Amino acid sequence: MQATRPTPPQWPPGTTVVQIATFNEAASIGPLLEAVHAIVPHAQILVIDDNSPDGTAKIVTKQSKEKEYIHLLLRIDRRGLGTATLEGLQFARKMGAEFAIHLDGDLSHDPADLPRLLEALTPPNEEPFDIAIGSRKIPGGNTVGWSVKRRVISWLVCRFTRVALRVPVRDGSSGFRAIRMQCIAKIDLTNLSSGYAFFEDFLWRAHRSGARITEIPITFTNRKIGKSKANGIEMLRGAYDLIKLAVYTCLKR
Ligand SMILES: Nc1nc2c(ncn2[C@@H]2O[C@H](COP(=O)(O)OP(=O)(O)OP(=O)(O)O)[C@@H](O)[C@H]2O)c(=O)[nH]1
Ligand SMILES: [Mg+2]
Fold first, then answer.
1. Which terminal Cβ of the chain has fewer Cβ within 10 Å, N or C?
2. How many Å lie between the centroid of ligand 1 and the Cα of residue 123?
């Protein structure tokens, strides 16, 4: 892994970092960085790129030289969305961030939802939450532009997470989440699923560690540019990881 500049000093207390894992998102990363900064100008932005052949990292490197709030973790071998998200969280932790939010790099998640997600962690007159999920599966949430097949798979995975993994959320697959970094210390991060099952696995571990989790409605819009990496092989790997977790959950009942 390479950082584009020497590790800067710790971020100030209260810092929020918005992290985006990318693989071949050259068409969307520029507008996304701009939109995120316009909506949460106080936040640091961290891109974790797996050496995308389309030059995504080059775009981010250029921006990071001009804007001190943009950072790049460049990983030389593609190692998957799960490990990229985890490395982002570990970097955020090392830098002393108080809140991290991760979202997809293809504009499927609307940066306009960032403030609501952050606010959901600290509701007035209620105990704070550790994780706020941008949820497509609660009233007010929605998915736009997905095929019936994709909707069925997503429904099955979320149902599986709720019933077999016993994580009490509706959208356990969502990649749009705000996290109070303090809770990370209590979560066992060893051997986390490296691919798309990362999101369910992380929530499963967070729930078992006693993390308080909430959901707020978001609209997810299917990517309009770039290519999906959620192919059949990735989905099978994810399914295998989830079944392993379910077996473990049953045994440890
Ligand atoms: N660093 C890194 N990022 C990845 C990898 N695979 C996917 N991503 C990023 O993770 C995010 C989600 O991946 P997508 O391909 O959009 O998956 P999806 O949203 O489930 O599927 P589509 O919206 O249909 O494309 C995007 O920002 C991808 O660029 C990877 O191996 N490494
Ligand atoms: Mg996507």
1. C
2. 30
